[in-house]
Design the sequence.
């Protein structure tokens, strides 16, 4: 079955708000349509989104803003500490070298098909990251933002006036490169094999400047996402349906768009796996309805609206078909 690279929705932390504030509500709506679903509803939840949806989102924002250096503007605000238990596990390491090793070891709980490495040659260390969809439209934005994420790790361990030897980006040199050098406060090299932070290896032994408020183990990260990030198309589609259900609107067209696939191809791939979109969507809706009825006091009308049904009657009919009784009866029994 086709494999779709995904990444944790935590990478979106603050991004929709940044777009709304700096570019406008209209641009945010356009970017969400390009991604295939409302990313603002996914950013605070522990789920995975297709990397193609991230590229579609940032590319649409850049077009709406007319800003060629959107990645550079985003870079200072990117912070690995916001990446859920994965981020807390990383910055909980005692030294910078340990933090980088943790980031590499736990990457499979954060994304699929991405690569991360630490290489030491002489007195230089190179901390590198390779995005699975590098080179696709919109990647120039992601590359600069990714460099900002890598650099955020160093801020927890090194003096505030520290500067890397250089930042390397696996994108072509833009017409105006000076703004990126101002952002990263060091020379920037382009057309590199990966996004990399190059620094003196002696810094690897520097200890955290922040008091450790919470101890987070690799087992904690694993418990948050059993088995790591979803590996096959069926699991990825289930993630997209879950995000759509939370947004109150489920559509195979939007799901196909978010994974950069035609509706016909998506249907064929699901059929090959013995599934179909409608059945998956109905099962996910039913699961969410059970959660809302059991654990909230929202009225049936509100639950129906949250689920995207046009009327409470339509929701009750669908629920009765799945559960064998009305939602009000289920709630009273629960």
Sequence:
């Amino acid at each position: 079955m086709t494999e779709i690279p995904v990444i944790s929705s935590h990478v979106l932390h603050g991004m929709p708000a940044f777009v709304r504030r700096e570019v406008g509500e209209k641009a945010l709506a356009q970017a969400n349509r390009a991604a295939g679903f409302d990313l603002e509803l996914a950013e605070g939840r522990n789920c995975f989104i297709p990397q193609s949806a991230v590229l579609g989102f940032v590319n649409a924002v850049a077009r709406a803003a007319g800003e060629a250096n959107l990645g550079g503007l985003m870079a200072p605000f990117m912070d690995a500490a916001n990446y859920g238990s994965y981020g807390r596990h990383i910055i909980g390491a005692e030294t910078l070298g340990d933090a980088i090793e943790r980031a590499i070891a736990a990457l499979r709980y954060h994304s699929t098909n991405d690569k991360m490495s630490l290489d030491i040659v002489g007195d230089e260390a190179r901390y590198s990251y390779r995005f699975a969809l590098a080179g696709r439209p919109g990647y120039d934005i992601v590359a600069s933002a990714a460099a900002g994420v890598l650099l955020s790790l160093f801020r927890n361990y090194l003096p505030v006036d520290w500067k890397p030897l250089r930042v390397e980006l696996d994108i072509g040199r833009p017409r105006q490169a000076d703004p990126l050098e101002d952002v990263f406060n060091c020379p920037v090299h382009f057309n590199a094999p990966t996004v990399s932070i190059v620094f003196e290896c002696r810094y690897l032994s520097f200890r955290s400047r922040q008091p450790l408020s919470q101890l987070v183990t690799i087992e904690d990260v694993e418990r948050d996402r059993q088995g790591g990030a979803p590996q096959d198309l069926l699991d990825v589609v289930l993630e997209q349906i879950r995000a759509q259900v939370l947004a109150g609107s489920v559509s195979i067209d939007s799901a196909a768009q978010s994974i950069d696939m035609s509706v016909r191809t998506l249907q064929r791939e699901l059929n090959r796996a013995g599934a179909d979109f409608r059945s998956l969507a109905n099962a996910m809706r039913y699961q969410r309805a059970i959660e809302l009825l059991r654990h909230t006091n929202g009225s049936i009308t509100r639950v129906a609206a949250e689920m995207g049904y046009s009327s409470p009657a339509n929701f009750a009919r669908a629920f009765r078909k799945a559960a064998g009784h009305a939602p009000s009866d289920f709630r009273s029994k629960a």
In short: The chain has two domains: 68-224, 233-333. The chain has a mean pLDDT of 89.
